[in-house]
Design brief:
The relative contact order is 0.12. The chain is an alpha+beta fold. It is built from 18 helices and 33 strands. The strands form 8 sheets. Strands 1, 6, 7, 9, 10, 12 and 13 form a 7-stranded mixed β-sheet that branches. The chain has a 7-stranded mixed β-sheet with strand order 16-17-18-19-22-23-26. Strands 3-14-5-11 form a 4-stranded antiparallel β-sheet.
């Protein structure tokens, strides 16, 4: 057996106060909740799950759970439980729902991020899985052999496949792929306020480097936060690390978003200090450095985005990585405008949209982008409440929910379990710009995609924009609009929700979303988005910037057709409007003003001029391009 080394943490880590797990446990257990506080938490949890939780019938059927009975048993047993046992038991009730939207967030004193100092990812050699170290914290010392590329074989003596499976059982993934992805992520990084804390004080790791076996001990350490991650309001159910967004329009897996920020803090700290995109208000596009030009990087003003060109054996294409749909309240316009700008500078021959690891955010930010890639009209996913007296009272009290009230009231006579299905915003909003990119598009997903990203992927597939290429068998399958207990309490004047003690918080799935198109009416929750094709991640992918994944995506794009539909208005005079078109792979066009047809023309590759009489007061011109009678491209202009 190789000798066991212990990894240590250098003093210049810039993480602020860092504690060992024994130190952390001692600190948080020193200020316990009273029994009255515990009863408040249990009362409010029962009210949320029984009265407002939209997925309760689905979860009872699909996962054979009874959370209400579990809460009653916990109420009975609470006086005999220690503080950690109580919190763990309440978290297990909520985790048993396998819904990352619905959470119990521990009191403020539990705020912290447990980490080992490495990141481990799964890859495949044929059908055989391997687990590879892909990142190490710069300030982790003591074992020079623990490097990027090391293959982890055992975790505390257990083979990695068994260890990952075991840890997946502690997480809330709603399908097999999601559970395994979250189980693996939580083995090295864990937001303690939202996840069961590590049982162990350290992890003994067995790994191979160049065929030689090594063993090292990695202590769990906890850092609270830093100025880089601060900004949220824990009392509103958003632990330090995420600014609270407008709650009525949010679909966010908070734990994935927190973990994403922690990974960035540990493994890419320079992006917080020097990245020119870090200023949310920045509008000036930074100039690329020589190194960026060499790597094909296209500079962007937004921290949620990364753009580059990738060269494959099938051609050169654009690669747009969308890390999150969560941004500051005033950043949604800047975000969608930056995506629109990038589409104009990335290669027109094909685009790889990559939303792996994206836990969601603003639903409008995700669905608004869909129109950029298709000539079809986007139908936003509709949302439903569960029908009962609580949701009836809530919809009567809150203006934003009034549209659902009549159908909930009617359920008294119809017996319908769910309300009418209505979108969060008018259809015109997500069709106000139209198609901007006319090359083929492929979407890459994984099992960490959740919530607003599930909605984006579902919309991409339902509107037949392109193929979905998954690195897992499914997305995370989060299909709801999520609200915090505190936001509901503030909105629901005179309602039954009460303040929670010690900064504890709940989040709950309030409205479920349904798919459109060929899968009309199918819930996203638990079912997710099954990709059209699965690419098992390879070792070259995890260590060489996804080279094999990009190659497969390039092959898919090469099968598509690159089209051109550019339009320019040439003034208006004597009641006639001139329209100059530049087209490719389009044989005819129809022209509409405010939805009314005004002209049609046969086109060939090159330029075409159309003149027509525009209706007085027209505001929007839309050009639709066809190939063999099929709508294949569109362009929208303001008059």
């Amino acid at each position: 057996m190789p000798s066991l080394t212990t990894a240590t943490l250098g003093r210049d880590h810039d993480l602020g106060t860092v504690r060992t797990m024994p130190e952390f446990r001692s600190d948080v257990e020193s200020d316990a909740l009273t029994q009255a506080d515990r009863m408040v938490l249990l009362d409010q949890a029962e009210l949320l799950l029984e009265g407002l939780y939209v997925h309760l019938p689905l979860k009872r059927a699909m996962h054979a759970v009874d959370p209400l009975q579990s809460l009653r048993l916990l109420r009975y047993r609470s006086p005999r439980l220690t503080e950690p046992e109580f919190h763990a038991a309440l978290q297990r009730v909520v985790l048993g729902l396998r819904d990352l939207h619905t959470n119990y967030i521990l009191p403020d004193r539990y705020a912290g991020f447990a980490f080992l100092g490495i990141l481990v990812e799964r890859c495949f050699d044929g059908d055989e899985p391997h687990w590879v170290v892909t990142k190490t914290f710069d300030h982790l010392t003591g074992d020079p052999d623990l490097v990027v590329g090391a293959t982890v074989t055992h975790w505390n003596g257990a083979p990695m496949a068994i260890a990952v499976e075991r840890n997946a059982g502690r997480e809330a993934g709603s399908n097999k792929a999601a559970s395994l992805a979250r189980g693996l992520e939580a083995m090295t990084i864990r937001p303690i306020g939202m996840s069961l804390p590590p049982d162990e004080d350290w992890v003994d790791l067995t790994y191979l480097v160049d065929g030689t076996e090594h063993e090292t001990r990695l202590p769990w350490r906890v850092f609270e936060s830093s100025e880089d991650l601060a900004g949220g309001d824990a009392s509103a159910g958003m632990p330090r690390g995420v600014a609270a967004p407008a709650s009525h329009l949010v679909g966010l897996d908070l734990k994935t978003e927190l973990s994403r920020q922690v990974k960035r803090r540990l493994f890419a700290p320079a992006s917080f200090r020097t990245d020119p995109r870090a200023e949310q208000g920045a509008v000036e596009v930074p100039q690329p450095t020589d190194a960026q030009r060499a790597a094909g990087i296209v500079p962007t003003t937004r921290p949620e985005l990364k753009a580059r060109t990738v060269t494959t054996t099938h051609g050169t294409f654009g690669h747009l990585r969308i890390f999150t749909f969560h941004m500051e309240d005033d950043g949604i316009d800047a975000f969608v405008n930056e995506v629109a700008r990038l589409l104009g500078v990335l290669p027109p021959d094909g685009l790889i949209l990559d939303v792996r690891g994206n836990g969601g955010g603003f639903v409008i930010a995700s669905e608004f982008l869909l129109q950029f890639f298709t000539p079809r009209r986007i139908q936003p996913e509709p949302m439903q409440f569960i029908n009962n007296r609580y949701t009836a009272d809530l919809c009567a009290a809150v203006e934003d929910y009034r549209a659902w009230k009549d159908s909930i009231d009617e359920s008294i006579t119809t017996g319908a379990p769910f309300s009418s299905a209505l979108p969060l915003y008018p259809e015109e909003v997500v069709n106000s710009v139209g198609q901007l990119y006319h090359g083929p598009v492929v979407l890459i997903t994984d099992a960490l995609c959740y919530s607003a990203t599930d909605i984006f992927a579902a919309g991409f597939q339902d509107h037949e924009i392109g193929r979905v290429l998954g690195v897992d068998d499914n997305t995370g399958a989060g299909g709801a609009n999520v609200l915090t207990h505190e936001a509901l309490r503030e909105d629901w004047t005179g309602g039954p929700l009460r303040a929670l003690p010690a900064g504890a918080a709940f989040r709950v799935s309030l409205r479920r979303c349904l798919r459109v198109g060929a899968r009309f009416g199918q819930p996203v929750e638990d079912l997710g988005v099954v990709p059209d094709e699965v690419h098992p991640i390879t070792r070259r992918d995890v260590l060489q910037d996804n080279v094999d994944l990009m190659e497969r995506a390039g092959a898919i794009l090469a099968e598509g057709t690159v089209r051109v539909l550019d339009a320019e208005l040439d003034g208006q005079g004597a009641g006639v409007t001139g329209l100059d078109l530049r087209t490719s792979a389009i044989d005819s066009v129809d022209v509409y003003v405010d939805g009314r047809p005004v002209a049609t023309a046969v086109t060939q590759d090159g330029t075409t001029r159309i003149e027509f009489a525009a209706p007085a007061g027209g505001a929007t011109l839309r050009v639709e391009g066809f190939a063999s009678g099929v709508l294949v491209a569109a362009r929208q202009l303001s008059l």
